[in-house]
Amino acid sequence: MAAYGLYSHIRANRIRSAFLLIGLFFLIYLMVFAGALVAEAFTRDGASVEQLLRFAERDFRQALPFATVGAALWVILAYYFHQSLIDAVTGGEDVSRAAEPRLYNLLENLCISRGIPMPKLKVIDTDVLNAFASGMNQRQYSVTVTRGLLDKLDDKEVEAVLGHELTHIRNGDVKMMVIAVVIAGVISFFAELFFRVMFRGGFRVRSSGDRKGGAVVVLLIAVALVALAWLLSIVIRFALSRKREYLADAGSVELTKNPDAMISALRKIEGRGELPGSTSAVMEMCVDNPREGFSDIFATHPPVESRVDALVKFAGGHDPGPIALPMPKDMQHEDSDDDEGDEEREESPRPQIPPPAQEKPPADEQPKPFGHRQGGPWGPKPGGPSGG
C-alpha cells in the first residue's frame, strides 16, 4: 500500500517500527522473568544468587507460552474495543453529513481525490484545538476533531489537519501507535503494581545471613529489570510517534498542495491542544501534544517550530509566526461578566426621557396631502415650482 510524503523515509520508518514493536513483546517477557525472580526469592530460603537465577530461568520457560497467549489476548481485546475506550476518555461522538456538513465535505473531498476509503468522523465538544486519528483497520479508522478547531480554523486549515490525519492512517502510523500504546500500557500497569507491592511492605525477606544476601540481590535485579522495561516502553512509544509527525505534515501538503495552510494550522493549534481528562496515550496520537518532556527528551512530538521550519524549507511554505487567537468561550464569558455588570451600572441610572411634545415639524416640512407633487425624490428643485 503506497504512502504519502517522503516514501523512502516512510519505508525505513515502518521497518524501524516493526522492530520496535517486537521490542515491546521482548519487554513483556522481561517483566515475566522479573516476576519469576521475585517468586523464587521468596519461596527458596538459603538459595544462592546463581541457584535463584537458574530456578527463575526454568520458571520463565514454563511461563513463556502463557505470557505470549496473554499478550496476544490483550492485543485482540484492544483491537476490537480500543475505540470505545478512547471515546469514553475524550467524549468523542460520531457525526454525519447532516450534523457537520462543512467537516464531512472537506474530508470526503480529500478521500475522493486520492481514492481513500472514508473514515468515520467524530467531534469532541471542547474549545481545545486538536485532532487525532485512531483505528486498526478500514472499518475502524476514524478522525476525531475538537469543536474549538472547527471554530478557530478556516476551511483550508481544517483540510490541512484532515490531510495530516489521513496520512497517519494511510502510512500505518495509527495501527502502530495503538499496538504500542496497548502493550506499553500493560507494562506500565504491571510495573506500577510491582513497585506498589515492593515499596509498601508487601514483601519481606525472612531469612538471615548468606540466605538473606542472595534473596536481596535477586530482588534488586528484579527491580532493575522492571524499571528498565518500564523506561524502555516509554522510549519506544516516543520513538513511534516523534518522527512520524514530519511525514504526516509532508503528506498533508502533498494531499492539499497548500503548505501555508498546514503551517497556519500548526501555529493556531500550538499550545492550545491539551485535551481535558485525556491520558498520555491519547495525547500521543494528536496533531500536537503540549505535554512536554524533560528538556524535550521525552516529548512525544517535535516542537511546532521545527515542524514549521521543515515545511518552510522543503515545501516552500511561509511562516506567519505565532498566531494570537481569541480566548475560549468559557474564559470570555467569565471575563465579560464584570464588564457587562459595569456597563449595566453605568447605563441603569440614566432616565428614559420621552421626546418633548412641542417638537413638531414646521408647516412647510409637514407631509403634503396624497397627490401633491414634491418636485422629485430629493425635494423641490432650487428655483423650480413647488407644487402642481
Describe what this molecule looks like in 3D.
Helices cover 61% and strands 4% of the residues. It is mainly alpha-helical. It has a domain at 1-81 and 175-336. β3 and β4 form a beta hairpin. α1 packs parallel to α6 (173-199) and α6 runs antiparallel to α7. The radius of gyration is 33 Å and the shape is elongated. Mean pLDDT is 79; it is low at 205-211, 343-351 and 367-388.
Write a brief caption for the model.
By secondary structure, the protein is mostly helical. It has helices spanning 7-43, 49-90, 101-114, 147-152, 155-170, 173-199, 209-242, 244-256, 259-269, 280-283, 304-315, 329-347, and strands at residues 93-94, 120-124, 131-134, 142-146. A four-stranded mixed beta sheet has the order 1-2-4-3, with helices on both faces.
Output the keywords.
388 residues; four-stranded mixed sheet; mainly alpha; disordered C terminus; 61% helix; single chain; elongated; 12 helices
Topology, element by element:
Elements: H1 7-43, H2 49-90, E1 93-94, H3 101-114, E2 120-124, E3 131-134, E4 142-146, H4 147-152, H5 155-170, H6 173-199, H7 209-242, H8 244-256, H9 259-269, H10 280-283, H11 304-315, H12 329-347
Parallel strand pairs: 2-4
Antiparallel strand pairs: 1-2, 3-4
Helix pairs in contact: 1-2, 1-6, 1-7, 2-6, 3-5, 5-8, 5-9, 6-7, 8-11, 9-11
